[in-house]
Write a structure and sequence with these properties.
Mean pLDDT: 81
Number of helices: 11
Order of helices and strands: HHHHHHHHHHH
Shape: globular
Largest sheet: none
Strand content: under 5%
Length: 260
């Protein structure tokens, strides 16, 4: 099978996923509005920012950007389980097309949606007073780290979606995703938490990305000196690569083994 064939089939599958945006605009809008609501809620209703030297909104927005990339796992899982439940993936597997195109199309469409979500949330952050004070190159690097985290979470979602098989089982995974997301420094510093809990928060992959992008945006980091805090940029790259090394082959292997 030629590379051109794989690319053509993958683009066809990507366009299929993008067509769903026009057919289900409410779902798309809800996906964009939900993180904005969380940003407003934590920024104005709950936010306090203990231990933060500077404006809390400049600490909060980068954390929310990272949290949104992690929570995207649920949308990926739901889409995969819906296709499985309707037999769509089985029909694609029976067609004369590249089997890789199904997963590539899913990942490409999800990454595009995530990029749109980042732009929307960053735009709302700007309206609230958040500013990236770093250089243009550093700002682009920060968004690249955010999308790298999303890419890793995407493949976790694809694998777990195929394991779950049904949309109803996504709720069971959500019970785990939300605590992991909130067990990070997205909203508060590890120093404001009990000792052992703060250590766990520091080593959360989401915390590494949040700390790294705050540093690149030149926003308040508010982290006490520690190996994880001092090497946040390294961890923000290493964690997603490690997750990809585990879940990408698992997802591909699970896909190839379906129907056998």
């Amino acid at each position: 099978m030629s590379t051109a064939w794989v690319v053509s089939d993958s683009w066809t599958m990507t366009r299929r996923e993008l067509a769903h945006w026009a057919r289900r605009p409410v779902q798309m809008i809800v996906g964009l509005v939900f993180p904005v609501m969380m940003l407003l809620m934590f920024g104005f209703l709950i936010g306090g920012g203990r231990g933060i030297d500077g404006e809390y909104v400049e600490f909060l927005v980068p954390g929310m950007l990272a949290l949104t990339m992690a929570f995207g796992l649920e949308a990926t899982m739901t889409a995969v389980t819906q296709d499985l439940g309707k037999g769509v993936i089985d029909r694609f597997r029976a067609m004369p097309m590249s089997s890789a195109a199904v997963l590539v199309g899913r990942s490409a469409a999800d990454m595009l949606q995530s990029a749109v979500g980042l732009v929307v949330l960053a735009g709302v952050g700007l309206l609230l007073g958040w500013r990236p004070h770093g250089s243009p190159a550093a700002t682009l690097a920060a968004f690249a780290l955010l999308l790298l985290l999303r890419f890793a979470m995407l493949w976790i979602g694809i694998f777990l979606g195929m394991v779950a098989g049904r949309p109803e089982l996504v709720q069971a995974v959500q019970i785990l995703v939300w605590p992991v997301g909130f067990l990070s420094n997205a909203f508060a510093t590890p120093e404001a938490m009990p000792g052992r809990l703060g250590t766990v928060v520091e080593w959360n992959p989401l915390s590494a990305t949040a700390t790294a992008v705050r540093d690149l945006f030149d926003n308040p980091v508010a982290a006490a000196p520690s190996w994880a805090a001092d090497h946040a940029a390294l961890l923000a790259v290493a964690w997603p690569i490690l997750l990809l090394a585990i879940f990408f082959p698992l997802a591909v292997g699970r896909f190839r083994g379906m129907g056998k």
